[in-house]
Amino acid sequence: MRRLSPREVKRMMQRMGMEVEPMEGVNEVIFKLQDKTLVIKDPQVSLIKMAGQSIYQVVGEAVELVELEEAPEIPEEDVQLVAAQAGVSLEEARRALEESGGDLARAILMLKTKG
């Protein structure tokens, strides 16, 4: 099988209705997955247009980032409400809210069933 020159490849792609454009100035590409994040620094990115669709081709070395789970921000009013409803200290109420992910009803139930 003979090799195709880049010019022949370009002509064939044009006949099939494909356009390929390199994207300049891309510093970073980030893929956010359910359990991790992949980051590609200084990638080569090409935009391929075909049949009304855009396809992005990314070439580069991926680095995996581990996502740290952030604790939910708990409003002070919620802490006071849980403490009053469950009859516990503000510290206990705050801990229960953090454990329940900020769910008021679950935090109150946890505290009432503990004691």
Distance between the termini: 80 Å
What is the residue-mean pLDDT, rounded to a whole number? 89
- The number of helical segments is 4
| Poorly predicted ranges | none
How does CATH name the architecture of the largest domain? Single Sheet
Mind describing the biggest β-sheet? Answer: 3 strands, antiparallel
CATH superfamily of the largest domain: Nascent polypeptide-associated complex domain
Residue share in helices?
25-40%
Note down, in words, how this protein is organized:
This protein is an alpha+beta fold and about 120 residues long. About 35% of the residues lie in helices and about 30% in strands. The protein contains 4 helices and 6 strands. The protein has helices spanning about 5-15, 75-85, 90-100, 105-115, and strands at about 20-25, 30, 35-40, 45-50, 55-60, 60-65. A hairpin with a 4-residue loop joins strand 2 and strand 3 (about 35-40). The protein is rod-shaped. The protein starts with 5 loop residues before the first helix and ends with a helix. The model has no long low-confidence stretch (mean pLDDT about 90).
